[in-house]
Amino acid sequence: MAQVLEFKLPDLGEGLTEAEITRWLVQVGDVVEVDQPVVEVETAKAMVEVPCPYGGVVTARFGEEGTELPVGAPLLTVAVGASVDALDGVASASGIGVSSAPAAGASAARPVDAGASGAGGDEASGNVLVGYGTAAAPARRRRVRPAGGGVGAGAGASGAGGGVGAGAHAGATATAGAAAASRALPASGAGADAASASLPDGLPARGDGPVPVISPLVRKLARENGLDLRELAGSGPDGLILRADVEDAMRASAAAVAPIAGPASASAAARSVVPGIGATFGAPGATGAGAPAATGASGRGTRIPLRGVRGAVADKLARSRREIPDATCWVDADATELMAARRAMNEAGGPKVSLLALLARVCTAALARYPELNSTVDMDAREVVQLDEVHLGFAAQTDRGLVVPVVKGAHARDTESLSVELARLSEAARTGKLTPGELTGSTFTLNNYGVFGVDGSTPIINHPEAAMLGVGRIVPKPWVHQGELAVRQVVQLSLTFDHRVCDGGTAGGFLRFVADCVEQPAVLLRAV
């Protein structure tokens, strides 16, 4: 008989706690293989295709596209150890239907521990990502489903001698904003009848099992408002607790605490704590009964949630501003000779060398001379840690926001190798295919904001690094060259540095060396 294994959203690394479903790669009823990608999610760092560690038939999906799920939340369930035909046979015998459409009901045998013997153990994944893999997390206990009740596909069954009843349900729930969940439930037939008979409206017994809630948002809403979900009667299929149920309980609680305020005030008080965009950012409190929220009909502005890439950028930059006492110095440089050197390299044949690659090579040479700027600060130990390797980050603006891909081992690469790797990472950034590993671990950042047509900037350091080199646009300007006024290609360079790791003399020396290399690329020959 098939075993249904629950696959949860794994920890994708680097401290990520949530991800947004951008595209499902499988449908309910599809047959999947071990380590086959089943869903594409967007984290705060990258788009990631998540492989499933089990092989079998998909019986349920949790979450529509656009839903944000926390790490550890169920993604889907897979029936392991049976073909589609065999699964259909099992389902028919138990009164359970398997659907190939995501909105239809889906169910199978009850979920089991992924580490159990038999088919589940044989189908374990060899592709161990952070948080899941060969030894998957144990399945959750399931609540009792009343015999003969429920909505959609699924039914209860019990033997004459108190046999096990199996039932499941999966379907789209629009008000909850989440996809259906598999409700495959084990219970004693006699015990189930007795428990359900003692509850009003035929609701299933809760006992000490899990609360019938699918959406993490519903749990968060109840937690933030001090509600015990075990005390609520769900209005969804099979007693599923929906967001509307929690909001109704909040209104009732507000009315009980402040009956003098009247129905209008209680309703307004309940609305003021309903989490939407306003709750995320702390909407201002109402000044009277029925007062509009900040995003209501008053039209005082639009609130945009800080999440995904934008949220990660906001957190990192805010932390940098709080913790790093930065300072900035800048200098104008004549880049005419650097541009001429690039043309000569590209005319000689072979892979094209980009201007960014030349600037990256200049950075690695300068960091070899001034290693203080390739460091980080450990405030707990009150130490400056100078790093042996240079992992060069470069700022890239994409449709998803600002990202900083990282060229690992940049200090060991020549200009041509840097150019190839920068081109690869830039293309991956544009298409959203960068992995978390390609977006983390930088020790120094190169920021070419000149592509936006600006001359200068005082960039914020990419925490926990110690410095960032900024490069403005290269434009023709009047310049004194060899004692005469001439039109030259001029660029403004800026260095923002952590004043804890060095003083102005070191920062100035680094920037002056970079400017000298830009003006006279032959200076780089000393570092070859």
Sheet having the most strands = 7 strands, mixed
Distance between the termini: 67 Å
Average pLDDT value?
A: 73
**Which consecutive residue ranges, at least 5 long each, have pLDDT under 50?**
89-205, 259-297
- CA-atom Rg in angstroms: 30 Å
Structural class by sheet pairing and helices: alpha+beta
Please, how many helices?
12
Helix fraction?
25-40%
Shape: elongated
Binned strand content: 15-25%
Protein traits:
seven-stranded mixed beta sheet, alpha+beta, four-stranded antiparallel beta sheet, single chain, elongated, 528 residues
What does this structure look like?
This protein has about 525 residues and is an alpha+beta fold. The chain is built from 12 helices and 19 strands. The model is unreliable at about 90-205 and about 260-295 (pLDDT under 50).
Give me a quick take on this structure.
This protein has 528 residues and is an alpha+beta fold.
SSE blueprint:
Blueprint: E1 3-8, E2 18-24, E3 31-32, E4 36-42, E5 47-52, E6 56-61, E7 68-70, E8 74-80, H1 84-94, H2 119-122, H3 189-197, H4 216-224, H5 243-257, H6 262-272, H7 277-281, H8 308-323, E9 326-334, H9 336-347, H10 355-369, E10 375-378, E11 383-386, E12 392-394, E13 396-398, E14 401-403, E15 406-407, H11 415-431, E16 444-447, E17 467-471, E18 475-481, E19 484-498, H12 504-519
Parallel strand pairs: 12-16, 16-17
Antiparallel strand pairs: 1-8, 2-4, 2-7, 3-6, 4-5, 6-8, 9-19, 10-11, 12-15, 13-14, 17-19, 18-19
Helix pairs in contact: 5-6, 10-11, 10-12
